[in-house]
Each structure stands twice: as C-alpha cells, then as structure tokens.
Amino acid sequence: MELSSGNANALSGEALLSSMGGGALPAVLFLLASVAIFLHRRRRKSAVKYPPRAPGGWLQQMYLRLSGTRSAYWMYRAACDLETEVMQIQLTPFMTVFAVGELKLFREILTDPRTKKPERLYGYFRGTYGGESSIFTSADPDGAEWHAKRKACAPAFSSGQIRRMTRVALDKTEAWIQNKLLRCYSFDVAEEMIGIVLSALSETAFEYEMTQQEKKVFGKELSLLLIEYCRKTPVIPFRDRLGWLFKDRRRTVTGVKRLKKMVFKIMEEWRAKENPIQGTIIQLIMDNSEAFPTDESKAAQLLEEALRKRPSEKWSSCEELQRVVEEGLRLHPVGRSIRKIGKDFYTAKGEMIPKGSVCILHFQMMHRNKHIFEDPDTFKPSRWQNPTRDMLDAVNPFSLGRQNCIGQSLAKAETFGIIAHLLSQFELSIESEGYVNFFLTVKPAEARLRARRM
C-alpha cells in the first residue's frame, strides 16, 4: 500500500515522539517555550527606550572623579548639553549608573520601599571606619542592623539635645571670634567653620574637649581617607583588591589607625566619667550593646557622627537669612544620594531604568532644573518669597525616604545659628574665592573672607 507524503510525515513524527519516550516531550516543549520567551524579550528590549548616554567613557569618568574640582558640576553640565534630566553614565568598565534630576522620578525612587543603598559602593565607605558597618553604610533599610542603629541614635537629635548642642556651637563661635577673628579679620571659610562645628560636636555629643592638634590630625586624616574610599576606590578597577601596590592607599591604612586610636581615647575617657550626661550620642551608642555589640562597631558609629558637619528645630526668625541660606543650598548642595532600585522606573519621556540599576539622585541636576527654577544658575534669594510647590519639593539637600540624614535638624539649627551670630556683628567680604573641591561632599577650598566689625 502506498502512503501519501502527508501520512508519511505524520507517521514519522509519531515514530519520532515514540522513540523519544514519554519523558522527552515535556523537555522539547520547555525548550520551545524558552526560545519563544527569549525572542519575545529580545524584541521587547529592542523596542524599549533608555535615557541618553553621557559623553565620554569610564576613563573620562575616572579622570573627572580623581580631579575632584572638575567632577563637582560635571553631571549638571552634561545633562544641560544633552537637554535631559536623566542620563546613563559609564562609571567603571563593569558598571553603568543612571544620574537622575527629574523631580517626580527623583522622589519616587527615594521613597519607594524597594529602593536600597548599593551594597558594593557603600561598602567602600566602610574603609573610612575600619571596615565596620554604620547607619550610613548599612545598605538595607529593612535590615535589623540598620533599624537597631538608627533607633539607638535617634534620641540624640531630639529638640532638647539640638538646643543644647546649638548653644554650645554658638559659645564656640563667640570664643573663635574673640580669640582668633578679632586678631586678623581674615579667615579660611571651610577650615574655620569645620573647626567650630567639630569642637561643638566633640563636646556635646562625645563629652570630650578636642585639642587644636587633635582637630588638625582629625581633619587631615579624614580628608585622606575620604579621597581614597570615596573618590579613588569606586572608579579605579581592582584598587580595593590591589591597594597594597599604591603608596597613597597604604597611607590610608595609617590614617584609619590614627582615627580609631583617637576615637578609642574618647570612649575610654567617657567610660571613666562618674556621671555622664544622659541622651548624648556617645551615651546612647556606648550603652546599647544590642545595636553596637563590639567596641569596633561603637567606634565606627562615633566616627560617622563626627562626619556630620555638613552645612544647612527652628529656623531663624530672620526671613531674609532663611532665603539666603535656602538659595545657597539650592545652588551648591553638598552631596547626592546613591540608590539601587527594586523595580523598573520610567522617566517622563517614557525611558526605562531597569530594576536593579544603580541611580545617582543628583541634587544639583534637580536644584538647577530650568523647568522648576527661573534663571537656575543665578543666585536669587527673592525666589523663595513665594515658592511654588515644585520648588519646595525639589530642594532636599538631606535626601528623602527612610535613609535620609538623621542629623539634618542639628545641621540646620547650627547653620542658621552660626551664620546669624556672625552677621549680627560683622560685615563679610570676599578676599579669595578659592575653588570647589569634591570627595563625598562638595566643599569650598582655600576660600577666604574678610570680616569688618560693624
């Protein structure tokens, strides 16, 4: 009997399936389904729009980051050139990040419960604390470690403690005026203001009086450590693993030991006190062995608190001063937030930022957004007389969400207190503009003011 070609094909297919056995059919179907899904995703991916790429590759990024001065405003200028509020940046050969300056997206990312700090990048900062974890370097806001540390330190920033710390800061400011400013009338802005705040913080938070030499050593060593762990290590491939080859990296090991030695001295002096003040940062940390089980973890958190000298609960009664400071923080925000997103996000243009991406929430890109601020590059305090809702939502120098700055109330109070105290007695003029430097935060370098008594 002759068979048609169709019947022959059918019989051969049946024979093939029969020869494969019953267990092979699911495997074939799974393979076909996998191929179909792969092709579908590939077509879908090819149709997805992504934010534009910033000019230059990772080598340019490394050069910019190492320069410090050039990198402070580079992202903002690159976004202006691309006419975008969100862009991709090739940070290293192995990492592309997204710089975000779009208001709605900025707030969505920071307030999304699935957003976390990227473990790898914040892990580099731990080198500054000798490898120990702290509130700032704990990546997961849902983790028990972060919650315990944050909860333990929060009472130190109560309204009563802030008032006490601000009073001490003003006393330190007046002592600096009498002992130093009235003798020369010229001062380095960053050096002197950091010295005042560090003295106040040491006395109020740690119950310890720092000597001038200790403040100098602290400032020098801390700068070297931040340059290494926040500027160099994140962008130079394999530097964290091959650090022993670099002289400046080896030097930071000495710096870590010196800072830890200073912090352990502060801890020992506090332990020797018969009646330490309750509610201070050091008391809350030292007496909480659940959140800080070892002396190393206690020292790491104390060192982090000493880092909280960023400029910016009560606002000054002078509305003009409020507007001047607010405009200064808008034009020159000290930092940025870095987060790893837990879901896909989309820009206003429909561009996708995929789940798992690292995003740099860039304050300056948003603070100078021309769609929110008229003449965004101009210092114009009067804009804050009748601000729009978008303007108020856009300026968040202390970040948003669960992992915002725990010490922002203190920072605001001290900034307004110290500035108001100086301006009530002196007229200030620029002697030298200096330059802008960047490692971890944006800060003035070698800028000098001259004071004239009124």
Offer a few descriptive terms.
3-stranded antiparallel β-sheet; 17 helices; single chain; disordered N terminus; 454 residues; alpha+beta; 11 strands; 4-stranded mixed β-sheet
Describe this structure in words.
This protein is 51% helix and 11% strand. The protein has 17 helices and eleven strands. The strands form four sheets. A four-stranded mixed beta sheet has the order 1-2-7-4. A hairpin with a 2-residue loop joins strand 1 (86-92) and strand 2 (95-100). It is globular and about 85 Å long. It starts with a helix and ends with a strand. Residues 1-21 and 309-316 have low confidence and may be disordered.
State the end-to-end CA separation: 119 Å
Helix fraction? 40-55%
Spans of at least 5 consecutive residues whose pLDDT stays below 50 are: 1-21, 309-316
Q: Please, what is the average pLDDT?
A: 81
Strand portion: 5-15%
Strand order of the largest sheet: 1-2-7-4
In short:
The protein is built from 17 helices and eleven strands. The protein has helices at 5-20, 24-47, 58-67, 74-82, 103-111, 119-125, 144-153, 159-184, 189-206, 212-232, 247-271, 281-286, 295-306, 319-331, 363-367, 389-394, 408-423; strands at residues 86-92, 95-100, 186-188, 337-340, 345-346, 352-353, 358-361, 426-432, 435-439, 441-445, 448-453.
Which helices and strands occur, and which strands form pairs?
Layout: H1 5-20, H2 24-47, H3 58-67, H4 74-82, E1 86-92, E2 95-100, H5 103-111, H6 119-125, H7 144-153, H8 159-184, E3 186-188, H9 189-206, H10 212-232, H11 247-271, H12 281-286, H13 295-306, H14 319-331, E4 337-340, E5 345-346, E6 352-353, E7 358-361, H15 363-367, H16 389-394, H17 408-423, E8 426-432, E9 435-439, E10 441-445, E11 448-453
Parallel strand pairs: 2-7
Antiparallel strand pairs: 1-2, 3-11, 4-7, 5-6, 8-11, 9-10
Helix pairs in contact: 8-9, 8-17, 10-11, 11-13
